[in-house]
From TrEMBL:
GO terms for molecular function: ATP binding; carbon-nitrogen ligase activity on lipid II; tetrahydrofolylpolyglutamate synthase activity; zinc ion binding. PROSITE patterns: FOLYLPOLYGLU_SYNT_1. The gene is murT. This is Lipid II isoglutaminyl synthase (glutamine-hydrolyzing) subunit MurT. It comes from Aetokthonos hydrillicola Thurmond2011. Belongs to the MurCDEF family. MurT subfamily.
Length: 445
């Protein structure tokens, strides 16, 4: 009976691979996108155990990268490190991180009969589906980056997600390596409860503390006893140096000393991404020199501090899809001397249909500095209203331009960007794809 099941699985796998590769060829030939989701969606109907059958063939194991922010950048950096060491890596590089996207990424690296000849598979995973795919994937390493409120209409609060993570991760083999963010109270506590091998990453840089805890803060209560945590300081939202005065719970000790490591790209959030990838790479046996060299020469993933030259103007795209991420991209903008910013707010399925999160963003800091703010997107007037409410001084030098048409908004923002300055574009996810297509004429998905 077992041999018969194996034969049927192989037959289904071979057929699924053939169909998936045909679909991929058709989509790309017709320039309908990069076919990062559809092939997996069709293939799984033919071979329901597709994810398990493919992941079992990965020689050195599957690495999962989960969390609210930073998945794409961290995954790409770790991919770059492993490739520099000569490893063959399967990776969902476009950021398609639901089940169909994971399957498509693995299918991309198979031959025509379904053989997957790679050393590692690095898969960024949507935080909500992580518990669902752990059993079929049986990962070797799980990177837990952070948990913030994101798309509440779909996911709920962070404590709900963390409890599901803890419950399912604890059932994995003891040799599984889990790497949580020590500065996130919820994830630090998660790591302290697991029976598996646990390493932590985090910051030790008091000079980078925020002046105050921002509005977009989610987990300032002890995950163990519920008491209000004491913070020496916070770096981003609720990420910081904390302890509980009631039960003694405190921040876990990071494996790497953060001040000794270079940082990829702009923004403190990218220091977290660097440390997460470096911790995982060292655990996989990569030498420190290779890691540092890769970090130093790393290029941004699409839309994540991606830099372009358009019509002689310098453009930087900073994905801004939730309160914490947007506060951090605003920090990047306000620390620069550039005077023009384009904000694009959509409310489509990839963004989350509830845009009330913009009222948790510290847009006051962006408005206070003046300059030109161009606003566009499906919810252009919601964003414009938020910015107007942030304008405490009616005599401020803010030039707010509302433009429904995205192409016109981009053209206006480019026109108003002075020579020698950078146009910062802060879009939600679907808006980022539209912005990139408008700027370089190429779709991602």
């Amino acid at each position: 009976m077992g041999n018969k099941i194996q034969f049927i699985d192989k037959l289904r796998l071979g057929l699924a691979v053939s169909v998936a590769k045909t679909v991929t060829l058709g989509v790309r030939s017709l320039r309908l996108g990069s076919a990062s989701v559809l092939p997996g969606s069709i293939a799984r109907r033919i071979a329901p155990r597709l994810l398990e059958l493919l992941s079992q063939q990965v020689k050195n194991g599957v690495i999962l990268v989960a969390g609210t922010n930073g998945k794409t950048t961290t995954s790409l950096l770790l991919h770059s490190i492993l490739e520099r060491k000569g490893y063959r890596v399967a990776h969902n590089a476009t950021g398609a991180n639901l089940e169909n996207g994971l399957m498509t990424a693995l299918l991309e690296s198979t031959n025509l009969v379904g053989t997957l000849d790679v050393d590692y598979a690095i898969l960024e995973v949507d935080e909500n589906i992580l518990p669902k795919i752990l059993a079929p994937l049986q990962p070797r390493v799980i990177l837990c980056l952070n948990l913030f409120r994101d798309q509440l209409d779909r996911y709920g609060e962070v404590d709900t997600i963390s409890k599901r993570w803890t419950k399912v991760i604890s059932t994995l083999p003891l040799e599984t390596v889990v790497i949580p963010n020590a500065d996130d109270p919820t994830l630090s506590y998660l790591g302290q409860q697991l029976p598996q091998r646990v390493l932590f990453f985090g910051l030790n840089e008091p000079e980078n503390y925020l002046d105050a805890i921002p509005h977009a803060v989610d987990s300032i209560y002890c995950p163990k006893c519920g008491h209000l945590l004491d913070y020496k300081g916070v770096y981003i939202s609720h990420l910081g140096d904390f302890h509980c005065p009631n039960c003694g719970f405190s921040k876990s000790q990071p494996t790497l000393d953060s001040p000794e490591w270079p940082q990829i790209l702009l923004g403190l959030y990218n220091k977290y991404n660097t440390l997460a990838a470096a911790t995982a790479a060292k655990e996989l046996g990569v030498d420190e020199a290779t890691i540092r060299d890769t970090v130093t020469n790393f290029q941004a993933a699409f839309g994540r501090a991606e830099e372009l030259e358009v019509n002689g103007k310098h453009v930087r795209i900073l994905l801004s899809k939730n309160p914490v991420g947007t506060n951090e991209t605003i920090r990047v903008v306000t620390q620069s001397t550039d005077t023009t910013t384009l904000l694009v707010l959509n409310d489509r399925t990839p963004d989350g249909t509830d845009v009330s999160w913009i009222w948790d963003v510290d847009t006051e800091k962006l408005v206070e500095r003046g300059g030109t703010l161009v606003v566009s997107g499906d919810r252009v007037y919601d964003m414009a209203l938020r910015l107007r409410y942030s304008q405490n001084d009616p005599k401020s030098q803010l030039n707010l331009i509302v433009e429904e048409d995205l192409h016109q908004a981009i053209a206006k923002a480019l026109e108003l960007t002075p020579a020698g300055e950078t146009l910062h574009i802060l879009p939600t996810y679907s808006a980022m794809l539209e912005v990139r297509e408008a700027l370089i004429g190429r779709k991602i998905l």
